[in-house]
Design a protein that fits this description.
225 residues; alpha+beta; Luciferase, domain 3; 2 domains; 4-stranded antiparallel β-sheet; 3-stranded mixed β-sheet; 5 helices; AMP-bd_C; medium-chain fatty acid-CoA ligase activity
């Protein structure tokens, strides 16, 4: 990341650390903590949370020379991006793990790619990895859609294999057969010819979230007359 933190797996690290982690920080002065998302509560080793860092080459704040009111926006952004004791919130989900007794860190996804369904955290990366194996699915991207009762639910955007028409029941039965907890199942399917992408070719989840939010609002308006 441009803001700081470099990690390596030293030559004496066990092979499992190279396979399953991003290693350890390069500087002994680097400090890394795993916090419960949106809080300053440190999680125990082995639990997934937000990777937060502080050290000699990690930024301590974003600089902006624009006049008011834009300068106030920069201050607000800094308040969101850093903890009260100066740790930078990377937005990455991470975990402390031990490989053959070696303490290291792994990246488990992005914070924004977690669906908060009634307090239950659902990893989008995990769900996408599972759904990619469905025989009717050529490509899939899962995003959070707003829900008035639970806060968020999962919506799967599916590019089907030619001639296939996967529906929600198909996906749910497939996940059930693999022992996936019911609360993780997507609760809506959108079939598309192609997933939207940014100018640099990345899947544009922001566009998908905005699109499904607009669609839900229109459906609610129609249902209420």
């Amino acid at each position: 990341m441009a803001e700081g933190l470099f990690t390596v797996t030293p030559l004496d690290a066990p092979r499992a650390a190279r396979r399953h982690s991003v290693g350890v920080p390069i500087s002994e002065l680097d400090a890394v903590v795993i916090l419960a998302p949106g809080t300053e509560i440190e999680l125990p080793d082995g639990e997934v949370g937000e990777l937060c860092v502080r050290g000699p080459y990690t930024i301590t704040g974003y600089f902006d020379v624009r006049p008011e009111p834009e300068a106030a926006e920069t201050m607000a952004h800094n308040a969101r991006a850093f903890t009260s004791d100066g740790f930078y919130r990377t937005g990455d989900l991470g975990m402390v793990r031990f490989e053959e007794g070696y303490r290291c860190f792994s990246i488990e996804g992005r914070l924004k790619d977690v669906i908060d369904r009634g307090g239950e955290k659902i990893s989008v990366d995990e769900l996408e990895s599972l759904l990619t194996g469905h025989p009717k699915v050529a490509e899939v991207s899962v995003v959070a859609m707003p829900d008035p009762r639970l806060g968020e639910r999962g919506c799967a955007f599916i590019v089907p294999v030619p001639g296939a028409m996967p529906n929600l029941l198909d996906l749910q039965e497939y996940l059930a057969g693999r022992g996936v907890a019911k609360f993780k199942w997507p609760e809506r399917v959108e079939l598309v010819e192609a997933l939207p992408r940014t100018p640099v070719g990345k899947i544009d989840k922001k566009a998908m979230r905005a699109g499904i939010t607009t669609r839900l609002e229109a459906e609610t308006h129609t249902a209420t007359g």
